[in-house]
């Protein structure tokens, strides 16, 4: 039997220095590991609306959604990952994030080697040309 798909969005945000915004997940799936901020799209929302809401809830940042970078399936979740630009707010972990920070390419690589990222995040972002610098 096919599981129903749960539509989600993720935000790929870079700061002016080319660092990538990551959140440390407080809940499953991926509790205790670093991931892109994002979450479920509610029935009445567009992807853009959900991305703005989720980014605000998880990071306290206001973002402007950009282009779709790619789509991944993780269990029942179908995640649409979009570039986005932070335009206001002060980075603070919230909602289901226990921490949030901007990471450089070197920091991201170290986190990947140490197994601190959610499964397949590095591989996926590398394939999309979306790694931090």
Automatic annotation (TrEMBL):
Keywords: Hydrolase
Span of domain Nudix hydrolase: 4-125
InterPro entries: Nudix_hydrolase, NUDIX_hydrolase-like_dom_sf, NUDIX_hydrolase_dom
GO molecular function ontology, one term from the record: hydrolase activity
Cofactor entry: Mg(2+)
Record's signal peptide: none
Name this protein carries in UniProt: NUDIX hydrolase
Organism: Amycolatopsis albispora
